[in-house]
Amino acid sequence: MSRERKVHRSDICTGANGTSTRDIPPKERCLKTNNPDPFLFSLLPIDCQIHIFSFLSEVEKCTAALVCSDWSKLMRTPRLWRVADFMRLGAFLSGMGGVLVSARDFERWKEWVHQYSYHLMSRGASLLILRASFDLGDQRTKWADFLLKFLDHVHCGELQDLELNWTLTHLEPMDIYPPGSMAQICLAKTDQFNSFQTLFERLTRTSHKIRRMKLPFDWSDHSVFLLTQFQHLKTLELNYFWVFKGVRPETMQQLTKSLPNLKTLILQVLVPVKDLGVSYPLESKSLEFLDVSQSRGLVFNHLDLPSLKELRVKKTIRGIILSRRTRVALQTRWSCLYDLLKSGTPRLQVFNSHLLLPGWRTQSYLELSEVLLQSCYCIDHTDTWLL
């Protein structure tokens, strides 16, 4: 029995011409023997190898690059580096919003940001996702220049998901913003706005395939024009830029009409007191989900949303004291939200998490009336001297 085992091992280790299989390269050995090498990864097509590596985390990819020279070359494939997330707060903080930290921690985080960007740029990352939160008006740290340089050295042609807060740096030292006058604040906002438009113009040229976008928005005519260039947008979330920055009704209407593939729209619009009597039209043939519950003072005068299935809206009492005569004169100019929904949203099914009954358009009912009291600004649904 031991003799048979010995002969069997000899057959494996010696080829037909008497040569040892140990002298045969691993790939050929796998094909010429009946006992193939148990690790056949190197025999897979390159695209398959890259696809397998794509399931690794960034840290795991860097570790894999240390295995051998072939893997090191593979780890430099741009398609393996699809995510640039500058909102992870490095290795020492995670899962938090904007954070105030000590100056030392801020310097550590800034160093991590630059190392992380160099890591992605050196590999020519081909991004699908970009998440960043930097104050683009900060003249000391020059975050605007940093982001522009980063975009120059990575590939953004396939970028699909953009989350960019250009008004706030994710991590800030506690003493970075000393108290300033209103003129200084306005100047800082102008710097932010100008840097954002420069960056946004760059993205319209390189990343027109974006499908999801979340960012503060200034609602200027030029920014709206740039945003309408992203014709593949399906999900759009626009937050307020500054409490004193208003939105013109025709601008909002133009935006929603110009995005033919938009399915989900989340708006945070803070209507300033000077625009208290302004109401807004909204038109979109494709929109299915609309959330304006975080807005303040947003009143609609026209809705043309034939595909809308779900709506979230909340009335916000801002504490503005008006005389009854002034209040009534103002509210009589506002359309009832119920009437707008009946005529402009033929497919609406859910209103503020309330599943509408089949006959809701022909006759209101108690639950629907309660939802309207929480969401409609018209005189029939707001019996108070506060607006």
UniProtKB/TrEMBL annotation:
Q: Which GO annotations describe the biological process of this protein?
A: protein polyubiquitination; SCF-dependent proteasomal ubiquitin-dependent protein catabolic process
Q: Which CDD domains does the protein's record reference?
A: F-box_unchar
Q: Where is this region: Disordered?
A: 1-26
In terms of SUPFAM superfamilies, this protein maps to: F-box domain, RNI-like
The record's section on PROSITE patterns has: FBOX
Per the UniProt record, one Pfam family is F-box-like
Q: Which Gene Ontology cellular-component terms appear in the entry?
A: SCF ubiquitin ligase complex
Q: What is this protein called?
A: F-box domain-containing protein
Where the record annotates domain F-box, the positions are: 38-84
- The protein's superkingdom reads Eukaryota
Instruction: Quote the InterPro entries the UniProt record gives.
Output: F-box-like_dom_sf, F-box_dom, FBXO4, LRR_dom_sf
